[in-house]
Design brief:
This protein has 4 helices and no strands. The chain is mainly α.
């Protein structure tokens, strides 16, 4: 989980993330960020996600669960 949070924080251009934080609350949240998350899921975790999957995750924790259930 810590590796995931660290990688996501890097994509979101922040020092750290908490599982309860809403993804849309991050200043750099946009379509390029979503694409970066999709690339991370595919390249690092071997998980195929769509943009809708990422948007529907809502929170960092939701995204983490998505990575682990797909």
């Amino acid at each position: 989980m810590e590796q995931f949070k660290s990688e996501l924080a890097e994509i979101l251009e922040v020092d750290s993330v908490e599982m309860t934080q809403e993804l849309e609350s991050f200043e750099c949240w946009d379509s390029l960020t979503i694409l970066s998350i999709i690339a991370l899921s595919s390249e690092t975790y071997n998980v195929t996600l769509s943009a809708a999957d990422v948007k529907n995750a809502k929170t960092v924790g939701g995204l983490y669960e998505l990575f682990n259930t797909k």
